[in-house]
Amino acid sequence: MFSELKPLPTDPILGLMAAYKQDTNPNKIDLGVGVYKDEQGNTPVLRAVKKAEAFRLENETTKSYIGLAGNLDFCQKMETLLLGEHSTLLANRVRTAQAPGGTGALRVAAEFIKRCNTNATVWVTTPTWANHISLFEAAGLTVKEYPYYDYENKGLLFDEMINALKQVPKGDVVLLHACCHNPSGMDLDQAQWKVVAELAKEQGFTPLIDIAYQGFGTSLEEDAQGLRTVADTVDEMIICSSCSKNFGLYRERIGACSIIAKDSATADVSNSVLLSVVRSIYSMPPAHGADIVNTILSSTELTQMWYDELDEMRGRINGLRTLIKESLAAKGVEQDFSFIDRQHGMFSFLGINKEQIDRLRTEYAIYMVGSSRVNVAGVSKDNIDYFADAVASVIK
Ligand code: LMR
């Protein structure tokens, strides 16, 4: 049966990682996969994580199964991080299952949606993270797109977005990026979140909020503000969160899928379905990542250390956004790149064409996704000149 299979192309984002690794050009720059890098181009383990791991090594008492929902203390802390410590939802309407990364959380959500409504359509932004579409389709759901990023003006197509969402019926799901939109870096402002929240309530569709970059945009609190507005407005929603980026726990695969239901009884029923989904996919999540996050968030000292490290990462990313804009202008590039400084998180589209992207890769060993999405954290004070010269030369 295997001989019937046809080879598939490599993943557009992960394929870049492999190609970059093999490139022997000493000047090579990786602007591909969404992984934070420091000024030296490394992705170090956070200091707070190292301390939590040392604590865990000393204090772990068993390797027995963890349970379907995973580490319940971790789940509760994630709910607080997402919804805010004063949220009234925490007491009765939210239920959370730990999941293997943000992608695992999305897959659990997809199967949960399928159990709620086999015919649900999931609406995603144009564009969205490439894996969103294949992930929901793989779960047997229909995926449709709604307008979002304005490629021409490097902003939002907000009116078009709202007009499209006005056609979405009850029983469908609308996926929204809480902050640091992947791939465009273009986020809704708070007034726009209010409009979307009211529309979700009016139309009756279910918002699914993907929050993979909390703390990478403006702050931990502000990055969750839109999500909180929606949560306070609608009867039900789904939140898929990830600790890959903000805790730097990429390879530990730690995230969560949270369901908010209209009341406690419905939340309990939803939770039983959520856990049955988990059981049928991977039975139980791994323990390590959740223990680390829980250990950090249980300690005032480690939490403060993590806040500081998160501030450092966000500060560097925002500084690089300004640096890229200024360096390109200094090289005499006429095209306006000031939008990079207005966008948030790790990603922006450079807005250059395929031929220019290919030239950057073949002539300069600068790697970015084929859509011109760049991970700004791949730039540093050491390579910014090389990068700006290269972009200037392919644009001219
Ligand atoms: C990205 O968008 O680069 C990250 O979310 C990593 C991935 O899995 O694609």
UniProtKB/TrEMBL annotation:
Q: Name one GO biological process term.
A: L-phenylalanine biosynthetic process from chorismate via phenylpyruvate
The record's section on Pfam families has:
Aminotran_1_2 (PF00155)
GO MF assignments: identical protein binding; L-aspartate:2-oxoglutarate aminotransferase activity; L-tyrosine-2-oxoglutarate transaminase activity; pyridoxal phosphate binding
Bilayer-spanning residue ranges: none
> What keywords were assigned to this record?
Aminotransferase, Pyridoxal phosphate, Transferase
Q: Does the keyword Chaperone apply?
A: no
Superkingdom of the organism of origin: Bacteria
Q: What residues does the Aminotransferase class I/classII large domain cover?
A: 27-391
CC annotations in GO: cytosol
Top enzyme class: transferase
Question: Entry's InterPro entries?
Answer: Aminotransferase_I/II_large (IPR004839), Asp_trans (IPR000796), NHTrfase_class1_PyrdxlP-BS (IPR004838), PyrdxlP-dep_Trfase (IPR015424), PyrdxlP-dep_Trfase_major (IPR015421), PyrdxlP-dep_Trfase_small (IPR015422)
**UniProt cofactor(s):** pyridoxal 5'-phosphate
**Could you say which EC number(s) this protein's record lists?**
2.6.1.-
**Carries keyword Thylakoid?**
no
For this protein, the record's PANTHER family field holds: ASPARTATE AMINOTRANSFERASE, ASPARTATE AMINOTRANSFERASE, MITOCHONDRIAL
The subunit structure is: Homodimer.
Q: Which family does it belong to?
A: Belongs to the class-I pyridoxal-phosphate-dependent aminotransferase family.
The protein's matches in NCBIfam families, at most eight in alphabetical order, are given as: PRK09257.1 (NF006719)
Question: What's the protein name?
Answer: Aminotransferase
Provide the species name: Pseudoalteromonas maricaloris
